[in-house]
Design goal:
Length: 275
C-alpha cells in the first residue's frame, strides 16, 4: 500500500522511527528510501538506525503494552499482599519472639511464693511453741544478775578499772537483749492463745531493756575518774532509769498474757525482775 504525499509516493516502513514504523517517501534507491526520515519525525531527527542482523525490532506500541502490563501485574500483587497481610495484633501474636530466656519470663515461670499470699502453717504444736518462748525467757533471766552487778559497780566506783569493766559488761548485755529479740521474731506462735500479742509485749520490753543497758554503759563512761560515793547522776543515768521503767511496764503486759499459757503447759512462772 502506498500514498502520494507531495514529493513522491509514500510507503510504510516498519523500521522507521526507531522500529515503531512510519510513512517514508519511496525512492528508486532502496538503501536511500529506507534511510530517509519520516516527514512527521520532526526537525533535527536523523535516519532511524538499521536493526541489527538477525534481531527483530519490536514496535513501540508493543513495548508500551508490555511495560503497562507489567505495572498492572505489580499493582495486583501489591493489593493482594495487602489484603492477605495479617493485622498488627495477629502479627504480634504469631511472630512474637520467644522470651523464655528473659528475666521477665523467668519471674513469670518461677515458683517463688507471692509475698501477699499467706505462709504455710507451722508444723510445731502449741506446746512446742510455748517451750520455745520459755527457752528465751531462761536466757534473759541469766543476764539479769550481770546487769545488776555492773550498775552497782558504777555506783560504788571502787576503782577506775571496775567502772570501765562495768561499762563493757553493760554494752554486752544490750547486744544479748537484741539477740533475744531476733530469736523471738523467728518463732511462729500462731497455735498459742494470745501468742502473737504476748510476743509483741515481750519484744517491746526487751528493746527498752537494751536501751537501758546502753544508757547505763554511757553513764559508766561519764563516771571515769570518780571517787567512791561521789558518782555523778548524769543524763545517761537518768535515761537508763526511764528506759528501765518502760521495760517493766511492757514486761508486765507480757506476763498477763503469758502466765495462763505457762500454767496450761506446765512451764515455770516468772516475774518482771526475771525478764
Amino acid at each position: 500500500m502506498s500514498e502520494n504525499h507531495g514529493n513522491g509516493p509514500m510507503r510504510w516502513d516498519e523500521h522507521a522511527r526507531g522500529g515503531a514504523g512510519g510513512w517514508v517517501r519511496a525512492s528508486a534507491d532502496p538503501q536511500r528510501s529506507s534511510a530517509e526520515p519520516d516527514p512527521g519525525a520532526g526537525p533535527g531527527q536523523g535516519p532511524a538506525p538499521a536493526p541489527e542482523p538477525g534481531r527483530r525490532a519490536f514496535p513501540k506500541k508493543h513495548v508500551l503494552l508490555a511495560v503497562g502490563g507489567g505495572l498492572l501485574f505489580a499493582a495486583v500483587v501489591l493489593v493482594t499482599a495487602h489484603a492477605v497481610r495479617p493485622s498488627p495484633t495477629e502479627a504480634g501474636h504469631s511472630a512474637a519472639p520467644s522470651v523464655s530466656g528473659s528475666p521477665a519470663a523467668a519471674v513469670e515461670g518461677s515458683t517463688a511464693a507471692d509475698p501477699t499470699e499467706p505462709t504455710a502453717p507451722s508444723t510445731a504444736t502449741a506446746e512446742e511453741q510455748a517451750a520455745a518462748v520459755d527457752a528465751l525467757l531462761e536466757r534473759s533471766e541469766s543476764d539479769r544478775q550481770q546487769v545488776i552487778d555492773a550498775v552497782n559497780a558504777v555506783e560504788t566506783c571502787a576503782s577506775e578499772n571496775s567502772v570501765a569493766d562495768a561499762g563493757t559488761a553493760l554494752d554486752a548485755a544490750a547486744v544479748r537483749r537484741e539477740e533475744l529479740i531476733t530469736g523471738l521474731a523467728e518463732l511462729d506462735l500462731g497455735e498459742l492463745p494470745s501468742g502473737p500479742s504476748a510476743a509483741r509485749s515481750l519484744r517491746t520490753g526487751w528493746q527498752h531493756s537494751a536501751d537501758a543497758d546502753r544508757a547505763f554503759a554511757n553513764w559508766a563512761d561519764d563516771a571515769r575518774g570518780c571517787s567512791p560515793g561521789s558518782v555523778p547522776r548524769t543524763a545517761s543515768y537518768r535515761q537508763g532509769v526511764r528506759s528501765s521503767g518502760l521495760a517493766t511496764e511492757a514486761k508486765q503486759d507480757f506476763l498477763s498474757l503469758w502466765t495462763p499459757i505457762s500454767d496450761r503447759y506446765g512451764l515455770p512462772q516468772r516475774d518482771t525482775a526475771q525478764l
